[in-house]
Amino acid sequence: MSSIRKKGIITTIIIYFGFLLGAINIFLYFKFFRTDYVGLTRVLIDIAMLLSSFTMLGTNFVVTKFYPYYRHFHKENKSDLLTIAFFFSGLACLLLLAVSPLIEPLIVRKFIVKAPLLINYFYLVYPLTFFLVFFQILEAHAWNLNKAVLPNFLKEVLFRFFNTILIILFITKLVSFHTYAVLFSWQYAGIFAVLLVYLLYVKQLNMSFNISTLTRRLWNKMLPYTLFILAGSVITILSTTIDGIIISSFSGLDYAAVFMIAQYIASIIVVPYRTAASISSPVIAQAWKVKDMAKLDSVYRKTSLNLLIAGAFIFTAIWINYDDVFKLIKPDPIYYLGKPVVFALGIYQVIELGTGMNSAIIINSRRWKFELYSNMVLLICTLPITYFLIKYFGMIGAAYATLLSRTIFNGLRYAFLWKVYNLQPFTWKTLVAIVIPVVVYFLVYYTINLSNPLLNIVVRSIFFVVLYAFLLLQLKVSEDVRQVYGTIVKRVKNLL
């Protein structure tokens, strides 16, 4: 098994374990938290992500794109690239604090009627934002060092584990909700500190505080790249967080909580993309550096096919068991309103995964400015569509706005890479990867209907996995899947 595939499997396991913790947290939210409390945590994270897209200044992408040059130039592994990233992002964080008195009155006007709780806790956005920025910079550095496993563990597992502990403290009345909310806002500080200590321990944080000749030579390339990536990142984050913020403004934190739960369920589908991004982004950057188009084509096709297979599998598994899971949990009736949201967002996530690593390929290419242009189109589509659909149709309007705008967005990127670089990921296997889950879904869903919801989940899941895997292997859809299966079988035989 290749080292990349091995790291990918380990990272996927870590991320799904994190999602298991997240599912536990969601269950505890269902049972013990007021819906406006749940909605508050969602909106705080959304606002922090939006603000971090400004204060990040695109430095995490700069660290990834230009690292191959600095690695070659600084043989002693001591460069000023990371120093520059922290310096400018730190300045941006200080600027955010300076302008915060101008931001908060706007927040009060928009949320005082429907979401007054947010007004009381808005200040918690700042520690969330600042340490999210600093963590993402270190995360990009760790990716460059081929150490993607630890940052993925920190943000997917440890972050949620911290939250689990805080939730238990609140449930057992050892802390008030106010204390819970304050500690919740410092979780990114915790995982940032862990990653920082680790990199210092392994001596991979050798930052130079002198501006190198390489930086002076690349500055005229780095600055416009940073500005374009900044604009693109802001637009991307705005388009993905605006729905929860608008829902809170129009309908209140209760409905934001429902949307958050639905979005969390759909986000399980995108886990394989996170794994692929952390593993393949440095590979793509290096391939562009040496102009290895064959490597780019291979990465694009493989990630597209394998991510489509994984995404369709996860979405279908969720949809087969959705009703039975809710019968078991028995949440507040308001949460049942999220089912059509899960479906629309699930379809969007499958489309997103099916287009592979198009974003990483564009960002690291010489025509990286298209990243901004495509994101501008996304924003132009997203903002008005999301606003009006939420206003007239509520949460489901937000979900369909996301599905429509992101489909257009990915279509533009697909067309761009095909026309400019003759890169396109789809083959006849793509169609097979779409047909298999559809066929298996109808076979399982309409033939297995047991009265006990837990038993129904177990039996349906077993049949679904077996049929899906059987068709996938027999039709030889993915060589990577076959190799992973072969490795697993071999190790099981050796164990026995």
Summarize the structure.
The chain has 496 residues and is an all-alpha fold. The protein is built from 20 helices and no strands.
Order of helices and strands: HHHHHHHHHHHHHHHHHHHH
Helix and strand composition category = mainly alpha
Question: Count of DSSP E strands?
Answer: 0
Low-confidence stretches: none
From the alpha-carbon coordinates, what is the Rg to the nearest angstrom?
Answer: 23 Å
Shape: globular
Helix content: over 70%
State the major sheet.
none
Mean pLDDT: 84
Distance between the termini: 20 Å
Give the count of structural domains.
1
As a percent range, the share of strand residues is under 5%
How many DSSP helices? 20
Describe this structure in words.
The chain has 496 residues and is mainly alpha-helical. The protein has one domain. It is built from 20 helices and no strands. Helix 3 runs antiparallel to helix 10 and helix 10 runs parallel beside helix 16. The longest helix is centred in the middle third of the chain and has 39 residues.
Blueprint of the fold:
Elements: H1 3-32, H2 35-55, H3 59-73, H4 81-111, H5 116-121, H6 125-144, H7 149-171, H8 177-184, H9 187-201, H10 213-251, H11 253-267, H12 271-289, H13 293-329, H14 339-354, H15 358-363, H16 369-393, H17 395-421, H18 428-445, H19 453-474, H20 479-495
Helix pairs in contact: 1-7, 1-12, 2-4, 2-6, 2-10, 2-11, 3-4, 3-6, 3-10, 3-12, 4-6, 6-9, 7-8, 7-9, 10-11, 10-16, 10-17, 11-14, 12-13, 13-14, 13-18, 13-19, 14-17, 16-17, 18-19
